[in-house]
Amino acid sequence: MQPLKSSSTSVAMNFIQHLLEISKCIWDKIMILMGYNRSPTTNIEEELSKRDEHPMKAFGWAARDHSGVLFPFKFSRRAIGDEDVRFKVLYSGICHSDLHFIKNELGVSQYPLVPGHEIVGVVTEVGSNVQKFMVGDKVGVGCLVDACHSCDNCADNLENYCPRLVLTYNSTYYDGTITYGGFSDTMVADEHFVVLMPDSLPLAASAPLLCAGITVYSPLKYFGLDKPGIHVGVVGLGGLGHVAVKFAKAFGAKVTVISTSSHKKNDAIDHLGADSFLFSRDQEQMKAAMGTMDGIIDTIPAIHPLQPLIGLLKSHSILVLLGLPDKPLELPVFPLLLGRKIVAGSYIGNLKETQEMINFAANHNITADIEVITMDYVNTAMKRLAKGDVKYRFVIDVGNTLNAA
């Protein structure tokens, strides 16, 4: 009986080993699709699922895991449909949210991840039913590439608040594939989500308007902070804040920049045209400014106290939060009750409003202050962005440097 027992044990052990090998193989594939277990030299395109393949080859730079390091990446774009526009990407701005996503700081990143939602370029192909664009037009794509087109928000031209909106990257398109952003050579999008860029706007310096610009323009308009003589505070003089100053001044508002960095005073007043500067670490300055502002645009993407800002507001006025901290902010209620003050949020803008903003910017010569970089400098730029070392927006020269990088 002993030989039979030994033989049975051997068969069982072989079977278990076989199951383990199968399990390991399946697990490895799952981990690859999720973006883990990749070395910098791995050809990422060989690891992609067949479900993400499209007819049009594309090339860009992608993050492969939560380290946030970007590497060259071959992928594909869909063939254009009847309402689609394809364009060659010339420039792509770097937004602070790109940094959040490549590092998975919000816990929702899908790898491989091609960032970039401040994208401008030149149309190379249009679908048969496209009405607004033709080959050769200068165009841009911001934070959205689709929405459901059937909800109340979509019916009211508020696609940015659609519960099924499709973001330009790290989102799932309606065909089930993952969207990829503007750190790439080509883009394709439904014409409804494409903006016409006026010839008078330089493409590189206007690219950040497709996110930073519309993000500040929309709340200024919606909350009535676009009237001459209105006193608007702008918290943070970064990528969003410096553009907020320009738009608010163009509306005729009195603008005060509020910052924890006293050295930004000269730039705020002399370069950007702000009327005054408030160093928020100086308690005497803060006390003197209490109850003087009709509204505040808060662009800070990190944890910071709200109570001092609420104190700066007049009664019946509003603090609008635009930044995206990775942890919740503390909201003191009592100061709100005493002045019937409002704390609100605002999220990018709709497409009709985005085109309006771009046209307004062209008429008032508003662009972002930028530092143009090459594609192979992008990882260094991300490190500098994390430290706030940029005035005030990085823009990648995709058209001239992507292939060389």
UniProtKB/TrEMBL annotation:
Cofactor dependence: Zn(2+)
Alphabetized UniProt keyword annotations:
Metal-binding, Oxidoreductase, Zinc
Question: What Pfam families does the record tag this protein with?
Answer: ADH_N, ADH_zinc_N
Query: InterPro entries from the entry?
Result: ADH-like_C, ADH-like_N, ADH_Zn_CS, CAD-like, ER, GroES-like_sf, NAD(P)-bd_dom_sf
Top-rank taxon? Eukaryota
Q: Which PROSITE patterns match?
A: ADH_ZINC
Provide any one GO MF term from the record.
oxidoreductase activity
Q: Does the keyword Coiled coil apply?
A: no
The record ties this protein, via SUPFAM superfamilies, to: GroES-like (SSF50129), NAD(P)-binding Rossmann-fold domains (SSF51735)
Ranges for domain Enoyl reductase (ER): 64-396
CDD domains (alphabetical): CAD1
Q: What is this protein called?
A: Enoyl reductase (ER) domain-containing protein
